[in-house]
Specification:
heterodimer, A: 373 residues, Dna Ligase, domain 1, D-amino Acid Aminotransferase, Chain A, domain 1, Rossmann fold, 3 domains, 13 helices, 18 strands, 25% strand, elongated, B: alpha/beta, 9 helices
């Protein structure tokens, strides 16, 4: 789960890292009011995505009037598909140098990874290309935690910064990462001001989705995925559904098999209308799944692809049959069912729906694609 | 990682619904299930098997080669650290949605102890005709027959389909290695490939990958030096970037983890990449045929 800058920065302040003074504004009047108190300021769009500056979502303002005008322009913008509803207005700071700092879950070392570079002010991807020798990467054993001596040892040399202050800041950043089950906690830029202070000018925080259940209060401050009404309903019921722009509906079990069903539809010349999987504990929700996928009016044919390992296909089909009575599908439906419970499942489809399931997945996909052409 | 029928298996969470069901299935199939763990039911019996209060206690009484965890997500860290402390060298973690910081604790402890971890979020391991660990339908003869193809899969349902396709095409399976769909897992595609390359019963390997991460790319580097033929299907070509498609690991950020990048890397490593799983048997047969000729 992603957090907007204003929701991430309190986590930094909580471990003693300083951020510029400022506040949130939802309109021009409020922004101007804040700017009148702060003096020269920065007006920043609050959306859970990067590259806000390049999209025109960040503006410098010298006066309250200019801050109001900037807020007026930025609120209502769309940045990477996210509508801007509020801005963060912060005091400008005199910057001597921009640095980069982050801690993230690293799949290579299978532990936390601390990233730091004295060459900040650009994306980490750019730093990795332009200054690879100036990018420190320290893998941490999460059982032992942050090791200041080892970090100090590996810190890229720079006359412009106080090494001990950097190590102290990285230690605090690591603590915030641990305390909040972060997937990523990034400060870019971390700046050295003209009077030598370290300030976090930005904050990108992503909470590990698998940890939300033990970080419920924190998660309330995050930005939930933007869902369509159907997607929200499906989430409520307990399965993952994503609306796409095609016309072949897909109902499958397991993330891998569902993605594969989409791939196969595209491979045979069709376009998938959705991602919908009823894997894991949701495999008994066939009825609700059928209702969801057919509630999308763009669906012109439906592929039902089950492959039971843990989940029993006969239970899935029982659910589909219950839903069938309610929804009474008016589009052609194509079944292909394999794995645990397949004999019973195929017999139910054959006997109760009068539909012959396909033995080969690709044949079912081809038929579903042809049906809409 | 491959399991053998001679190895003993402990089931952590044996008294739960899934633990009960699958412990019974595994034992029926031939896996040497020696008992289970439930801290609240130490000293009792379940399915006619002993229940210990911890893996450490179990290991005092019997030799434990491997442990499988049917444990709720927030209990996985404690249970896995218990198994590692017991000196168990193979852990198979079935659970989905384990907090990643907990997974990293387990990985660090396992590395220090020299233990191997499969998962989390794996469907398990199958050695057809011998034993299985986890919740794959090993006992379904349309899905699993003995043979010489090793299968590596991030996904259980898709892995099942691939095994079935191989069996339908008259081929059989030497070992199924479900590595799991999470972003941080103990045994990677490359680790599994290395293991199957060293396995005498395996003559060819099918990789069932997914978009996201860089595991397939790492496996491709290793495959470049292999003589056994490898074919791969990568799920997610039609998935929109930036969206999480069920598996936490299956997400494309920027260009990293994309289908095109993976396909190019795999092909550069001499791996045949097929457009749907149904093409895997033909691809492997062709490669095996030309290798023999």
């Amino acid at each position: 789960m992603n957090f907007e800058e204003h929701a991430g920065k309190p986590l930094l302040r909580g471990v003693g890292l300083e951020t510029p003074t400022g506040g949130l504004a939802v309109d021009a009047v409020a922004a101007a009011h804040l700017a009148a108190e702060l003096g020269p300021c920065v007006v920043k769009a609050q959306v859970p995505t990067g590259k806000r500056g390049k999209a025109g979502g960040i503006a410098l303002a010298q006066t309250a009037e200019a801050a109001g005008a900037a807020a007026d322009r930025i609120i209502g913008m769309s940045i990477a598909g996210h509508p801007v509803e509020k801005v963060l207005v912060e005091a400008q700071v005199p910057i001597a140098r921009e640095l980069y700092a982050a801690v993230l879950n690293d799949s290579d070392s299978k532990g936390p990874l601390i990233l730091y570079s004295p060459e900040g002010g650009m994306d980490i991807e750019e730093i990795a290309v332009s200054h690879p020798d100036r990018l420190m990467r320290v893998a941490v054993d999460i059982r032992h935690g942050f090791d200041a001596a080892s970090v100090l040892d590996q810190l890229p040399v720079s006359d412009a910064v106080d090494d001990d202050a950097i190590v102290d800041a990285l230690g605090r950043l690591y603590q915030a990462y641990i305390d909040n089950d972060a997937e990523l906690l990034e400060i870019n830029p971390l700046v050295v001001t003209n009077d030598g202070k370290l300030l976090a000018l930005d904050c990108k925080f992503t909470l590990d989705d698998s940890a939300i259940k033990r970080r419920i209060e924190l998660a309330e401050r995050g930005t939930p995925d933007k869902l369509t009404s159907l997607e929200a309903e499906a989430k409520e019921i307990g399965f993952k559904y994503i609306e796409l722009d095609g016309n072949v509906g897909i109902l499958a079990n397991g993330a891998g098999l569902t993605m594969t069903s989409m791939d196969a539809v595209r491979h045979y010349g069709g376009t998938p209308a959705n991602f919908l999987e009823i894997g894991g504990e949701a495999y008994s929700l066939g009825k609700e799944a059928l209702e969801t996928v057919l509630a999308n009016p763009n669906v012109k044919s439906l592929l039902i692809n089950f492959c039971g390992a843990f989940a029993r296909t006969d239970v899935m089909v029982e659910g589909i049959l219950k839903g069938w009575e309610v929804v009474k599908p008016d589009v052609p439906v194509f079944f292909t069912i394999h794995g645990t419970g397949e004999e019973e499942a195929n017999a139910m489809v054959r006997d109760q729906l009068g539909i012959e399931p396909f033995d080969v997945m690709d044949d079912a996909v081809k038929a579903a694609v042809e049906a809409v052409q | 990682m491959i399991v053998r029928g001679t190895e003993t298996l402990l089931v952590q969470g044996i008294t739960g619904k899934q633990g009960t069901f699958w412990a019974d299935k595994m034992r029926d199939y031939g896996t040497r299930v020696i008992g289970g763990v439930n801290p609240k039911k130490a000293g009792t019996e379940h399915l006619g098997l002993p229940v210990w209060g911890s893996a450490v206690d179990a290991a005092k009484d019997v030799k434990v080669d491997a442990s499988v965890l049917f444990i709720p997500s927030l209990g996985v860290k404690t249970a896995a650290l218990d198994a590692i402390a017991a000196g168990i060298l193979k852990l198979v973690i079935m659970t989905e949605h384990v907090p990643v910081h907990d997974v990293m604790h387990v990985m660090a402890a396992a590395r220090e102890a020299g233990a191997k971890v499969i998962g989390p979020n794996t469907a398990g391991l199958v050695t057809p005709g011998e034993c299985f660990v986890g919740f794959m339908p090993a006992f379904n003869h349309r899905v699993f027959q003995t043979g010489n193809v090793g299968v590596i899969s991030r996904s259980g349902s898709l892995g099942t389909l691939v095994c079935l396709n191989l069996v339908q095409a008259g081929m059989g399976i030497s070992a199924f290695v479900g590595i799991g769909g999470d972003p941080i897992i103990g045994t990677t595609t490359r680790d599994a490939l290395e293991c199957l390359n060293q396995d005498d019963r395996t003559s060819a390997v099918a990789i069932v990958g997914e978009i996201g991460g860089s595991m397939e790319e790492a496996a491709a580097e290793y495959a470049a030096d292999m003589s056994k033929p490898v074919a791969a299907f990568i799920a997610g070509a039609a998935s929109p970037p930036g969206k999480k498609m069920g598996h936490a690991g299956a997400i494309v950020m920027g260009d990293s983890g994309s289908y095109d990048g993976k396909k190019a890397a795999l092909e550069a490593g001499g791996i045949t990449v097929v457009p749907t799983p149904s093409f895997l048997p033909t691809a492997l047969k062709q490669r095996l045929g030309s290798a023999a000729a």
